[in-house]
Amino acid sequence: MASRLRLPPLNSLRVFHAVVRHRSLREAAEELFVSPQAVGQQVRLLEEALGVVLMEREGRGIRLTEKAITLSHYISAGFDEFEEGIRRVSGPPERALINLNVSPYFGTRYLMPRLAEFRTAVPDAEIGLTTMIELVDLERDQIDLAVQWGYGDRSDTLSTLLLRDPKVICCRPDMAAQISSPADLMKFNLLHPARSRRLWPDILEYLGVTTGALDRTITFDDAATMRRATYQGLGIGLISRLDATEDIAAGKLAAPLGEDALLGMPEGAVPGFYLITTKTRLRAKHVAALHRWLAEQSW
């Protein structure tokens, strides 16, 4: 049998893990309740044990070498495994708790109508359901699964597309009367979602409108606020198709370029609702079961 690789001291790996997360010796020291000098010493011990350079001074900060970045992925996964194992053996023996966070719009529009069915997906587990507009940190916020709006481009999680969220360009009917071509959109303020800097630029590029930097003086955290701002004539809004269809039928809003003006956009340019988690969390059978139920639904 081949001899096992001799691992560096666990403490030096723990310190390195903290430094990588903070990109700072001082902040890592604060987390670990030691001095920055002690942190630096542990990093040097790790470098000596491995025979590689992991960090280089860069002004008052530090720069991770390519080998440090590679190593950090494996160490992060390792500590995730430690945490999950400890949580499983030391947690309460009663019903498993799954912490699920969803964006408010997805929760209201899509999940709530299926709440009874959703609850039966994991009958033996307790589900803690929260809503959060801002980007969740699964570790910090202690979330097992999250449904978030965006493009599925987070590198730190596993992302599964649940459904796309195509937008309709909308405004008040009196403003729509002044718009006969895509270029006319630039006569008005464009209302931007705070969670995406690319949505309007992608749309204007698709429509063939050439423009410079867009004014992002006012952005909106959630779909409901942008919808209200569009009602009030603050500018041209990007409204989710279900809402747009309702508002146009009620005469509250109009789609000056037509409700189907953006249907041909490339899929990668259309945001959606993504189910995010990590491999470690999916090892818990109840979390895996709920993840499977959410992913298999025809939203």
Highlighted features:
D-Maltodextrin-Binding Protein, domain 2, alpha/beta, about 20% strand, five-stranded mixed sheet, about 300 residues, 12 helices, two-stranded antiparallel sheet, Arc Repressor Mutant, subunit A, 3 domains
* Beginning-to-end CA distance, first to last residue: 52 Å
Write the CATH homologous superfamily of the largest domain: Periplasmic binding protein-like II
Strand order of the largest sheet: 4-3-5-11-6
Which outline best applies? Answer: globular
State the name of the first-level CATH class of the largest domain: Alpha Beta
Q: Poorly predicted ranges (pLDDT <50, ≥5 residues)?
A: none
Number of strands: 11
Give the second-level CATH assignment, the architecture of the largest domain.
3-Layer(aba) Sandwich
What's the mean pLDDT score? 90
Structural class: alpha/beta
In the CATH scheme, what's the topology name of the largest domain?
Answer: D-Maltodextrin-Binding Protein, domain 2
Supply Rg. Answer: 24 Å
What is the total domain count?
3
Q: Into which percentage range does the β-strand content fall?
A: 15-25%
What proportion of the residues is helical, as a percent range? 40-55%
Order of helices and strands: HHHEEHEHHEEEEHEHEHEHEHH
The biggest beta sheet, please?
5 strands, mixed
Output the number of helix runs: 12
Verbal overview:
The structure is a single chain. The chain is built from twelve helices and eleven strands. It is an alpha/beta fold and 299 residues long. The chain has three domains: 81 residues, Arc Repressor Mutant, subunit A; 95 residues, Periplasmic binding protein-like II (D-Maltodextrin-Binding Protein, domain 2, 3-Layer(aba) Sandwich); 102 residues, D-Maltodextrin-Binding Protein, domain 2. The strands form four sheets. The chain has a five-stranded mixed β-sheet with strand order 4-3-5-11-6. It has a two-stranded antiparallel ribbon with strand order 1-2. A two-stranded antiparallel ribbon has the order 7-10. The protein is globular.
